[in-house]
Amino acid sequence: MQADIIIIIIFIFIIIITVKHSEKRDRKKRRRTGSPSEPSEPSEPSEPSEPAAELNSSCVSFHYDGIQMTTPAF
């Protein structure tokens, strides 16, 4: 019974550490690319523009009206 509780606590710590590490990595990536930490909302909704794709070494980023979606490149 106590072993189950200890295992659950260990998994919770692993999840917390993983989330914190990914947040830190995202902040470093934002700082390196020069993106703002919090994107500002446009005052007026604009017409949808054509989506642009740029190829990175490990992922493909799609930009559509200020929204960036990243998918792994295969």
TrEMBL record:
Q: Which domain of life is it from?
A: Eukaryota
Q: What is this protein called?
A: Uncharacterized protein
Residue ranges of the TM segments: 6-22
* Keywords, in A-Z order: Membrane, Transmembrane, Transmembrane helix
Residue segments, region Disordered = 22-54
Q: Which organism is it from?
A: Champsocephalus esox
